[in-house]
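Preliminary data (for renewal application), pyridoxal-5'-phosphate complex.
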Amino acid sequence: MQGQQLYQRAKTRIPGGTQLLSKRPELFLPEQWPSYYASARGVHVTDLDGKAYVDMSIMGVGSCILGYADPDVDHAVKASIDNGVMCTLNAPEEVELAELLCGLHPWAQMVRYARSGGEALSIAVRIARAYTRRDKVAFSGYHGWTDWYLAANLGEEDSLDGHLMPGLDPAGVPHVLRGTALPFHYNRIDQLKTIVDAERDNLAAIVMEPQRGQAPQPGFLEQVRQIASDIGAVLIFDEVTTGFRMTAGGIHLLLGVNPDIAVFAKAMSNGYAMAAIVGTEQVMQAAQSTFISSTNWTERIGPAAALATIQKYRRENVAAHLIGIGNLVTEGWKQAAQEAGLKIHADGLPSLNHFSLDYAEELELTTLFTQLMLDKGYLAYSQFKPSFAHQGYHIEEYLAAVTETFTILADAVEKGDAASRLSGPPARRGFYRLTQ
Ligand SMILES: Cc1ncc(COP(=O)(O)O)c(C=O)c1O
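Predicted structure:
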C-alpha cells in the first residue's frame, strides 16, 4: 500500500509523521490506513493506490461541512487566485467577512483573523490578558497546542486529562507559566467557583466550549457568564469545532448566552485555512494595546473561502441538513447494534456524533470496525462528522454495511477473539511519541 510506504518515509522526515495528531494513521488503523489521499470530492476520497472510499468518518477533522472540494467555495477561491492572493494592499474580503460575522453574532462588533484554531485561541487569550492586565485563565475542554493552554500540565501532569485529549506533554512550555491555566470540568460550576475564590483578581479569561459532549445543565452557562462579568474576566467561547455545526455561527446563539469573544476556525471556510476572533468592541480594542500581527493572516484565500462557505451555508440551510444526516446515523448505529446484539453508546450533538462500544476490548473492536468498513469501501471510525455532501442514500448504504459489521463485532465479542481478527495492531489514542 503506497500510503503506508509514504507514511514510513514521513516518520523519518517529519517528527510524529503528521502535522495534526488527529490525522495519525495509528489513531484509525495502524499499518493499514490509506493515510494519504490523491483526491477528495464531495464525500469521495481516492487514495494513492487509486482505491476509492466514501468518507463516513471525520471529513477533514470537521473542517469540510459542505463536502470536499465544494464547487461554490472553490469557484470563489479560484477567482481570488486569478486576482492575486497576496498584495502590498489589503484584501477587501476581510471587511466584508467581519461585517458578516458581526451580523450573525449581534452582540459582537469587531473581528481579528488568524489561520488556525489554536493560533486564534492564543490571540483571544492575549487580547483578554491585555484588556484585563491579568495573567491567569480558567478553562474547560481542549483548546489547541499553544503555551497558554499546555501550561495547565506543568507540574501536575494530568490536569488536561478529561479535557478531550489525555496525556498532552508540556515539554518546551516555560515552567514560569505553571499555575496560569486552571482547569474546571464542564457543568461543574463548583469547580469554577473554587478557582474564582482563589484567583478572583487574577483571572483574565474563562475559556470554554459552550457545549460539546454533554448539554449544559440548566443555568450553568448563565452562571459562568455572570461570574465572568462579576469578576471582570473575559468570557471566551471556543467555537472552533461547534461553530457552523448546529446553526449559522456559534452554537451559543442557540443556547442564549453571549460571550465577550467567540473563536471560529475549521468549518467556517470548508477546509481552507481561516480563523476568526469575534468580539465586543470594548474587549477587542485591547488588540491594539499589544502586538498581534502576521503576514499570512492577510492573504486572500481564507476570507474569500469563508465568505463563500457562510453564504452557501445560509442559502442552503446547511445546519438542518447536517442535523438531519447526523440524526439518521445516530439512530442507525443504535438500531444496527440492537439487531446485532452489540452494546454501544451513541451520543453527542447530532452533527458531531460518536459511538463507543461498551466492552473491555473496546479499542480492538473499534479498530476491527474500521478495518472491516475499509474493506467495504468506507473511511469509518467511531466518530461521524456529517457534511452537506452526505445524502440519504450514502447513509442507507453505510448503515447496511454497519449492520453487517456490527454482527461480526458481536461474534468477536462472543468468541473473545477481536484482537486476533485484526490484520495489524489495535488503534492508539491520545498523545504519545512515535518511536518508529
Ligand atoms: C474546541 C477546539 N479548540 C481548538 C482546536 C484547535 O484548532 P486547530 O486544530 O485548528 O489549531 C480544536 C481542534 O480540534 C478544537 O476542537
